[in-house]
Amino acid sequence: MKSYISIEEIVKRKHFEHIEVIAGIEGLDRLVKWVHVVEVIQIRNLLRGNELILTTGLGFKDDPSLFVQFIQQLIECEAAGLCIEIGTNTSTIPQEVIDLANTHQFPIIMFNHEVPFVEITQDIHSTLINKQYQVITDLEYYSQQLNKKLLEISEYDEILTFCQTYLNVQVMARLNENDLRFYPDAPKREKQKLMKERECAKSIKQARIAWQPVMLLGNEYAEVIIFSKDRDLTEYDYLILDRTVTALAQQLLRILYVEERKNAEESQWMLDWLEGVHREEIIHEHLASLEPGLELNGAVVCVCKYQPVKHGVESDCTYLKLWMRTVFEQYGFHLFTIDVRQDLVLVLCNKRSAEDWKERAVEAFERVRQQEGTGKKSISAYKFGVGKFIYQLEEISLSYKTAREALLLTNRATKKDMSMFYDDLHLYRILSVIHQHANLDEIVSDYLAPVIEYDQRYNGQLLETLKAYLACSGSKQETAKRLFIVRQTLYHRIEKLEKILGTDFMEAEKRLALEFMLLAKDYLSIDKQLHKRSV
């Protein structure tokens, strides 16, 4: 397990027979990653930490101030220790250097006669390289054993138990806020102590605690922490932890994949649920059979328009659902998915308070949009429609119906930042009802036809001016800036509008009607474009 060698082991090797440890004797357990010969004073940019420095003192000779400066730099760079040859360039070790080294438990080893630095570095480097090779061999063996277990096991506990046994450390796994696993199991007081140590380690680095998140489909799904009681953790421990986390991610992904495939088999029941066939008691019984202990506070349906995978390859769709599930789970939703024709329907069952469901849903959708889907397929361009939030699960058909209407309305919206939530589409919902039960084109024409005809006849821009003027609440200065025209030109256009629409077109009731008709005109324009595409 040790990929490096301690100073205590080094001083027992060849060429260290006649030495004297004159300072920092309590730091002889420091690990050495490399040996470096240094004969200059400014060395901050030359060291990376844990180097054993060999020197004859040429850089500072018998200057105590330079010697102290040299030692301070070694301590700041976290060098392992200093070996100095006395007699060649330096005759004594100043007391202030010894005091500084003792304060920081920084070992200073003195050679009382000339020694071959080249043989010392060759000997120690050979040992370090051999240890590194052994580490690689051990890691390969560990990885092979993990791969064998992945083929045989059905639960992830064996992976974490294997890591605990192999490293002889305490292992803790956090799958979510309430699911903590300990390997081996520990008394309640010990568990609380370990959790407290983990929290402290977030702000202050601990030599005996290491952790790594388990990433699934671009999101942190879990976390594995290892605690050592009697030794500092080495890079080997970190490498073993990394291999363990990778194997755990594979196993968890396989479990989630199986669950997702199982959920797909529930599609007929889900369809009936969306159609309002099932009653409240039946729904709760069925959901309890799928996930015991699942407590819900309402639900909402989301319809996603996406392109299905062709050539019979279904795995990408399954991983897309898995990926979205990992996001929504973190925001307090239990996700059910079902494919309905060319749409993906998401039933977001709320597990937390119903008061902030929308804020959490917005954050979850934002994360979904920002990240790349499985197979490098971006879903940032996918359209979503979110229905009404319902408190009784048997009313899910209402949420489904309004989600489909919200998706249809967002497709016809002119604003790029249009809300996907049905409850936010106030005017568009009114337009939809009018369009279904009346001749919306005729109504729009009654209000705007004279302005449109004027623009067509004289190549004018009155309609654009009317939009901007209303959007700026009648502010001529802001309107002119928005249209990039001088005020005199704007005054001339407003006069034309007053002749066509009447001098009262900015009065409250008429102004509201004009704003609504402008929105309706855009709505009809996009509706016609969608109709052409479908034809």
Brief rundown of the structure:
The chain has 535 residues and is α+β, with helices and mostly antiparallel strands.
CATH topology of the largest domain: Alpha-Beta Plaits
Number of strands: 15
CATH class of the largest domain: Alpha Beta
The residue-averaged pLDDT reads 84
> Which structural category do the helix and sheet elements fall into?
alpha+beta
| Radius of gyration (Å) | 36 Å
Helix content: 40-55%
Architecture (CATH level 2) name of the largest domain: 2-Layer Sandwich
% residues in beta strands? 15-25%
Poorly predicted tracts of residues: 308-316, 373-377
Biggest sheet strand order reads 2-7-6-5-4
Number of domains: 4
Number of helices: 18
Largest sheet: 5 strands, mixed
Describe this structure in words.
It contains 18 helices and 15 strands. The protein is an alpha+beta fold and 535 residues long. It has 4 domains: 5-126, 3-Layer(aba) Sandwich (Udp-n-acetylmuramoylalanyl-d-glutamate--2,6- Diaminopimelate Ligase, Chain: A, domain 1), CATH 3.40.1390.20; 153-261, 2-Layer Sandwich (Beta-Lactamase); 267-401, Alpha-Beta Plaits (2-Layer Sandwich); 435-534, no CATH class. Helix 15 (462-471) packs across helix 16 (476-483). The longest helix is centred in the N-terminal third of the chain and has 36 residues, at 117-152. The two termini are 69 Å apart. It holds the Pfam family PucR.
